[in-house]
């Protein structure tokens, strides 16, 4: 009972505890006596005893004070004290706010308590019993709380904000935190040292001092010296200009407007202040920004763009070594003089007629009002001589010719022009490709041709595409149309290789030297001369008799890098074919008509159509390949199979699903047909037709193949249909191949 009592009443004083214990002890004695009197039958009771009327002469046991109470042992007691709650304040102990628009208008304080309790947020006081209560309420243990203090809640200047934590019944103050709040509604100002003005003896170092009339104090200063305003946000971020940290110099020989702005810790941003510094220390500095042409003809002129850092008068002169009299060269026939403002660009025209042939030093001399002189110069060359072509070589080998056709390989890659002097490398003339197998010669669009200057005197024309087989053609550079070959002075090329303002280079190609492997035609039957099927193919030598030839055409696929570019690969020949023809696109496992269908193509449509594929995918090429072209006849024939039953299955369906085969279509090759009636074989060069045949004949037609599996040549490459009118005109299209 005593122990329990102590747990329940920790604040009872010692005297009260003693009286309570005595009463309880006496009660215990009486209870024992009564319990002996009331013992039930058959039970041994405790003997009665009589209390004496006086305690005199009675000896008491140790611990017995003779009071009549029964001594109760008292165990050691640890004093139990109530535990107060504590604040955990996580925000700044000093903050700055302003009631000015655009400044920092409020501050949020964050805190928590370690026990359930009650809080009050008071302003204008350093105690928890005065001031104004701005917020209050119950708070749960370990709950993060945020209170916002607006500038309007505070008086101007510095004041104390008190955060108080009380017991849940608000009778006991557990903990408190003092926060200093500064309200500053005034913007700071900035002073310059030294002040603005004109400086001639030394370049000033500009220092900036920020002063805040409010209580917050300056936070940051930003400046600009390019004539535009600096900028600062309320939190001190530089939105325009440079944050000031130490003194800085301004430009010499210049007028500089230094503009500054400041912000204080309460977010008040000052207006922009400006101080102007005119600095002119030493001789003027002449800057030549540009020369429009360093090489000119006598009939031309060049513009010099220049400026001076100091104002003064100027004159342009030719030759000489400086601006001193006697060594300053000669004046122009029409004097070039004038006045220049400081740091103002001036464009001066230099006439070529006043210059001598070769190099000329052009000098500008400027004199300030203080007789200080500055100068600068550039060299301008006068050149009235036309450049010449020293050589034109084909793939670094044979020379090109304007007189006779030079035999070139189908894989010829480029031409190299070498000139007699440095040329204008900004000009990149490209030739036009003409087919002379027809009459008149027909333009063959060649979209992949490019021009590049290897150096100032070497120009390379790259074809970037395989040439047609048995092809008579020329490249034509028109020197009457821009761009044309010119030297740096603007003189147009003349002399060798030039005739009638044209460069006309003649070529011819032979058959493709590349070997292509023979593949299985998939034919399973053999026939006699009458077309009857033979019972056995043994020893006939026909296609079906040869069962060991490989077949390499695969089903359509795509490179993962180019998933929309469907291709059909031949693993035997090593060739890659564009799966869908012109005007078709891949969809749901087959080729379907695209949004831009192509009804037909001439030979002159087919060549650029396939070459254009090399420019797809930003120059990476269709399916990542850059060797696309119209196939040769032997490449086209390598596709053919003869296993079908309907007569139009020469191009296999599995390899080319959705392929157009419904209207006697034929497909161009880049193998030209020759008109000579006397084709012959040069036995000293087995397999090659005499070039005399190609040189003397005309390749007005070109070979084609059809879905029927055969090959023929058209009556003219400018046509888009075949020979006859039965049952129609054999519409012509194109298949494209890449190595």
Specify the structural class.
Answer: mainly beta
User: Rough shape?
Assistant: flat
- Biggest sheet architecture: 6 strands, mixed
Rg computed from alpha carbons, rounded to a whole number of angstroms? 53 Å
How much helix is in the residues? under 10%
Tally of alpha and pi helices: 5
Unreliable runs, pLDDT <50, ≥5 residues?
A: 1-64, 69-75, 77-81, 676-697
Query: Number of DSSP strands?
Result: 45
Give the CA-CA distance, first to last residue: 106 Å
Protein name: DUF1566 domain-containing protein
Domain GH29D-like beta-sandwich: 194-274
Domain Lcl C-terminal: 568-678
Pfam families: CHB_HEX_C_1 (PF13290), Lcl_C (PF07603)
Explained architecture:
It contains five helices and 45 strands. By secondary structure, the protein is mainly β. The protein has six domains: 53 residues, no CATH class; 97 residues, Sandwich (Immunoglobulin-like); 91 residues, Immunoglobulins (Immunoglobulin-like), CATH 2.60.40.10; 97 residues, Immunoglobulins (Immunoglobulin-like); 121 residues, Immunoglobulin-like, CATH 2.60.40.1220; 188 residues, no CATH class. Strands 20, 22, 23, 24, 26 and 27 form a six-stranded mixed sheet that branches. It has a five-stranded mixed sheet with strand order 2-8-7-4-5, with no helix packed on it. The N terminus is likely disordered. InterPro entries: GH29D-like_dom, Lcl_C. This is DUF1566 domain-containing protein.
